[in-house]
Amino acid sequence: VDGVDYKGDWIEIHLPYDMIISSLVMQGRGTLPYRYPKVFYMFGSSNGSNYEFIQEITTSLSGFTTEELKNNFTLTIPISSTNNYNIFRMMVNELHPLPSNVVDNDREINIGRWEVQGNVIGLFPTVSYTVTVAGSVFELNGTTPSISFSADTIYIFDQSDISNKDNTLVI
Q1: pTM (2 decimals)?
Q2: Which label site among 59, 121, 162, 167 has the fewest CB atoms less than 10 Å from its CB?
Q3: pLDDT tens, residue by residue, 100-120
């Protein structure tokens, strides 16, 4: 990426929409905090071929009690990005150190949860309709429609217009 050879194991997520990432929520794996990423890099892509460096992140587990570490601790990590991507890649460069009393022959990455958060761009196209109900007739943009609803679509019904103040919306 940009002439730099980043090293590490990686995981990526492909989203069906573009997002400007603002944070990561990551959860550890119970009794294995030393397998949690300590130093990692975030990259973004819009095509899966060309990646852009977003940020280097170093995590600290020093604020957690032993009990919290055993109970799948969670970190929310702020990300500073202004570009939108639909593919995000996390490349882990270093894990947290092993405690002196632990032997781990499988130094592998363990993440219980990896959530990418941010501002979604283009997920739901905005469509505005004027709905009026007068004399028990439902009109949509001036016509009486035949309406069917899809389980894959979000519908928002706003009755804030004063002309609908005495009408009940029943769906």
Answers
A1: 0.67
A2: 162
A3: 787 877 778 888 888 899 998
